[in-house]
Each structure stands twice: as structure tokens, then as C-alpha cells.
Amino acid sequence: MRGMALFSICAALLAASSPAGAQLVANSNEPIDITGDTLEIVNKIATWTGNVRAVQGDGILTAKKLIATLGDDGGFKTIQAIGDVRYSNGKEAIAGDKAVYDAAARSITMSDNVIVTQGETVMTGGALIYWLDSGRIRFTAPTGSRIRGIFHTKSLDRPL
User: Fold this and answer.
1) Continuous H helices in the chain
2) Which residue has the higher pLDDT, 63 or 120?
3) CATH says 2-150 is which class?
4) Domain coordinates of the chain in residue numbers?
5) Tens of pLDDT along 51-85?
6) How far is CA 14 from CA 47, 59, 96, 141, in A?
7) Largest CA distance in the chain
């Protein structure tokens, strides 16, 4: 389950301790610096496009597009990262074509060609859903495929 623990860490990708505050790094008070080639805000929807990069401490999220729906309290109701989505904190990484944070459902869904890496451990699949409150994770395969995990174990006969 070491690979699954990674998604718990990477869930900080867009996790919020409250609906008002999205975070890239769990329990961080550092600001989130979001850059992109363009930003358009219309009717409480902020859309960054082109080389989008969001940085908070060691956490880095990149995508072709980031769409944030703002709530009445100024916080994020939903956040979507679309196109070549990559998250890394220097130790773990997760990639896919799309990621969606839903404040009401308290969930994060990463979909389309999901790859999770932690050291030498690699897991691939079609979609990954993480429920923030319960810590439950569901990894599903695309039609006609299977979920794959490569786990490296250490022999008790070898020195650590």
C-alpha cells in the first residue's frame, strides 16, 4: 500500500482544510503563487491558460489550463487542472491529463493516464479518486486495461 500512501500525500495537490483555502502542500501557511500565459475572470470563474504553474513551498503543480470556481466566501468551490497535469513535492509525483478538486464532495479526482510514483514504486491506471475526509482511495482502469503497480521490496538477507 506504499503507492497508495503516495496519493494521500499528493492529495494536497488541491486539498483544502476548509472550503476557503486550497493548498498544494498539506498544512502549509505559505501563499500559492499561480502563473500562466493568460488569466481571465468571468462570473466568479478564474481561468489561467498556457504554461500554468502553481507553487506553494516544495509543491509544484503544472498544467495547460487551471480553472477555479470561486465561492461567495472568496474560497474555491472547484478547481480543475487540465492537460498534462503534473504534481511534485520533490519526493513524490503524480501525473494525469485532468485533476478536479470538489469542495462540496471533499474529493479529488485525477483521470486519464494516471501515473503515481514514489521512489521506485510506480502505479498506473485510468482514474484515481481520493476522498479527503475518509482517506478512501479508488483506482480504476480504463476500459480493456488493468491497474498496474510495480513495488520494490527489500530482502531481509540484504543489508539496508
Assistant:
1) 2-10
2) 63
3) mainly beta
4) 2-150
5) 999 888 888 889 999 998 888 877 778 889 999 99
6) 16, 10, 14, 23
7) 62
